[in-house]
Amino acid sequence: MYLTIICEYYSKLCGFYADVLLSDALLVVHVYYCKGGYVSLQRSLESNFIETVKLRSLLPEGSDILAAVSGGSDSVALLQLLHRFADYMDWKLAVLHINHRARPESGEDAIFVRDLAVGIGLHCNIEGISPPGSGSAEGYFSAERNRIYREYASERIIVTTGHTASDRAETLIMRLLEGSGLRGLGGMDYFGRGSVRRPLLDFTRRELREYLEALGQNWIEDPTNKENSFLRNRIRHRVIPLLESISPGSTCAIARSSANLSQWRDIADSIIDDSLDELLDEDTFRREKYLILPRAVRLGILWAVSGRPRGGKREIEKTDRWILGKKDGYHILPGGTRITAEGDNIHIIKSMKRAGKEKN
What we know:
Blueprint: E1 3-10, E2 15-22, E3 27-34, E4 37-41, H1 44-55, E5 64-68, H2 73-84, H3 86-89, E6 92-99, H4 106-119, E7 124-128, H5 137-152, E8 157-160, H6 165-178, H7 182-186, E9 196-197, H8 205-215, H9 231-246, H10 250-279, E10 284-286, H11 287-291, H12 295-305, H13 313-324, E11 329-332, E12 338-342, E13 345-349
Parallel strand pairs: 5-6, 5-8, 6-7, 8-9
Antiparallel strand pairs: 1-2, 2-3, 3-4, 10-13, 11-12, 12-13
Helix pairs in contact: 2-8, 6-9, 6-10, 10-12, 12-13
């Protein structure tokens, strides 16, 4: 048996951090001293959570944090972890519940989350979403949630969501089935749109449920998660278990692949931004300069000019072929940007203030 003690002095918190590793006993004990006292970390999941948060600078000390809590196991675990370290990190924590009104029990979910928040001394904001009229319900609800997140988020307020490694793996498989490129395959990242953060991407759904069970904390089971009408649910209940039976640990392996692809996606975005800066002269670029660029970069430029939409891949490819054909006229890109060609000059008929990078 050997014993290693690492102490790091935090001058701002006037405390210390110590890791005690007892390898023979396979025991990890972490002790943090903070303003509110000692927080004992006897569960490695808690240790990994705070290390991820600090290493990746996801939730800086002193931040106002809004935990998006549906009542499901993932978001309830998120709330428990945030609350556990709120004093240590000097976080000002509150809860946000979005009532999708998609099923009769939705009101009970809101009551559960409110009571959970009040029980640990937190304010709970409850927002409602009107049911979709037509089209994809999943896409509609996602867009509405993002809209509400934007309304609450600011430079200081950070919205946290309970997306996990399991979600990351499911998303990558979905994108493969859709024939997505690097952007789609990169999937979820720790940094979402604007001030949205996903601090649970290192943990599987199963790990978080075991953590809640150890705490004696219950959660709500959404019956719609068992319906196979949604592609994600079919992947979750049919594909993932099959992959795990063939190769145990597949979920985490696929999630790691998504993380690697996400890094390459960021590199590709940087190349596209640099190429766009070099290509454009205010709202015009030369066709001959565009033609010598690699196809992937050309498509990326048109996607950026369009405002970085989630869809519209076919229309962007069609516009690229049209520019290569050296024809005059115009094309409309997704989002309404108008591309006009006059000889060697290509004009962008829209404000050229590029939309900020959007992460999935």
